[in-house]
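Section 5.1 Outputs to date
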Amino acid sequence: MKRLLSIVALLGLTGLGVSLSAQQTPSSTPSTPSQAGSMPDQQTPSSPTSAAPQQPQQQPTDATNAQQSARAFEGKIEKSGDKLVLQDSATSTSYKLDDQDKAKQFEGKNVKVMATVDSSTNTLHVVDISPAESR
């Protein structure tokens, strides 16, 4: 009787180990649907649980990429209609500024703007604005 219980327990633990390793291995995901029919309750909760930790990890990466792609723009803060823009001295391009409050104190002055650029809207997402170094 003990021998039979030992065999059943061993088979159960082996099956559980195989199931857990299949869930952790991305390459075995296509074979998971064939197993899903036999264990839908175990696989359904693991999908949202395993997906949830990945999302917070991706968000800092996106923020990091945005900060890494920030670059310096130099020019003069000027009014364009009711908005402040940066008139880039090097390219003679006018960029919209997403942070009007930071730009307001530099209106009419030459500045260096650290920002990421949204080329589809020609908008600078301001990280920092400082007075341009006089040469």
